[in-house]
Design brief:
Rossmann fold, 2 domains, 7-stranded parallel beta sheet, disordered N terminus, hydrolase activity, RNA helicase activity, rRNA processing
Length: about 575
Amino acid sequence: MANDTSTTAVAESYVDGLTTFESFDLDPRLIQAIKQQGFSNPTLIQAKAIPLALQEKRDIIAKASTGSGKTAAYCIPIIQSILEDLANQSEPEHEIRSIILVPTRELSSQVTQFLEKLLVYCNKAISVANLSATYSPQVLGLILANKPEIVVSTPAKLIAILEANQSVVNLKHVRSMTIDEVDLILSYGYMDDLDKLENFLLVKKNNLQIFLMSATVNDDLNELKAKFCTKPAILKLNDDTARDKKLVQYYVRTSEFDKFLLTYVIFKLSLIKGKTLVFVNNIDRGYRLKLFMEQFGIRCCVLNSELPINSRLHIVEEFNKNVYNLLIATDETNDFTVERDEDDEEMEEAKPEEPKKGAKKDREYGVSRGVDFRNVACVLNFDLPTTSRSYIHRVGRTARAGKSGMALSFVIPGKEFNKHKASALASTKRDEKVLKRVVKSQLKLGFEIKPYSFDMKQVEGFRYRAEDGFRAVTATAIREARIKELKNELLNSEKLKRHFEENPQDLISLRHDKELHPSRVQTHLKRVPDYLLPAGARKDTAHKIGFVPFQKKVAKRKGKKSTRKSDPLKTFKARK
């Protein structure tokens, strides 16, 4: 069972073939729901964590690779424990019994959906509420009044609700608390919220079971462990399976403008097969790339923190359903922080992007971690992240659960920085230093990042068209597109209801990859002439036209010398 909360199969190296879910002595309703998802054997992390949590009542700190089943490793014990508590009560009452904290709204929605699948046969004995969803105050009050057994939320949202509804929300019956993606929660600055939560939990530390789950565990976890845990079981699994992952990584040294040129060539000529996730470092960058691609008829959609939460969830859902094959995602988890290097004397803290006036970013947004992007064939780092940890999280979106995948990163050499000001980005100044750290960190994980070079002689024929398309994407066009997209998504977010699942023909009005159109539209750029293609890629290589003269040669008549000259600029009449 995969940690990405989907029903996709996990790699064989993650599955414990000698153990079954029946051996955990789970409730029959829970066993039936697990089988409905198509699983008979737990993964390694589940086989270790579930017995420790249920039989020994231990706190669990788990470090396991992406796609190894961490979500089910805490969801199954939580549901089983609540079912046992309800069975021991003569008159079961609805009370909040478990809190699940996640770093982003997107992950909150995914975990809630996964819990609902596990609770499908529980006859509403247990209810789950996603507090991070966009509820009105009235609806939220009604949900809290019904006292769901499991609540899923981001730390900040939960604290805001607790402070505003102290008379309604009672946490004295809480018996378990889960913090998923622990390292990301700490990097998001949620520690203050966790401190406040400790005051709201009216439960003794010894009576509260804790689950701390993450793909990486570092020293920052010690403070959290000391605050909440008592004699935790620390599980570090799947560290030796990194080499088994079919992830191929390349980097390309190129100039700022050539990043756009190469991206145009890659997607127009379909050099990458399958779905691609393109990462950029700020919102304007995402819209610039989208508008540039539209010039050539390449359809794509954008995902960033400005869009409404309903639209973001819908975009991810449609991407997972293969409605879109190309998604440009703004990764703002970096906040332009940089890592300190021992031999790096020049240590300037790069400043984060200044927010636009009137633009509101969602603080609880994150795409490089937590969001369940399924069956991604390639991750393209159009902009290299500013930290090696962000790089690991980005490329972790592909080659998941034993499937193969590729990561391609554009790197700007120092001598090329800021040469093409229209396409320049401040964070690329440190690309080479970041690359060194990325290469070093990947070697520790058993991966090698190889250099890759395009045959620029074959690409050069596309340069003029790329320059023509890029000139149309002005700062004004980007600003107008950003406003237009936000207005469209705000309207669409009100329509994202079950009606559209029952009436799929109406979904055409909700497509997220519609063209935004810069002020200058050049339809001729959408077609690639055969003469620009490499010889082997042309459709009709056998038929060669050869040289075509401007004027047609006229055969001279015998005995007569023609003195007439035809000027094609003065007449439309053609001589026979």
